[in-house]
Amino acid sequence: MHKVTVYTRSGCGLCVTAEQDVERICGELGVEWEVVDVDTDPELRAEYGDRVPVIAIDGKEHGYWRVEEERFRAALV
Hints:
- By secondary structure, this protein is α+β, with helices and mostly antiparallel strands.
- The protein has a single domain, classed as 3-Layer(aba) Sandwich (Glutaredoxin), CATH 3.40.30.10.
- Helix content is 42%, strand content 27%.
- The chain contains 3 helices and 4 strands; from the N terminus they run βαβαββα.
- It is globular.
- The model has no long low-confidence stretch (mean pLDDT 96).
- Pfam families: Glrx-like (PF05768).
């Protein structure tokens, strides 16, 4: 079973959209997911900077800024 992590920050419009997309797709596929605010951890903030949102699957970066739905779904099935 896969686990999806969405790295975000407060006040990020693209982050809100990505979270909604991930919630919908993961809900349909029964995949566990979580949101992590990069501003709560200096290491995450340094790693991801202005590239948020970043979507990771099983701890590996899958994409950033937008959810490419077809590619995302393919990675989860």
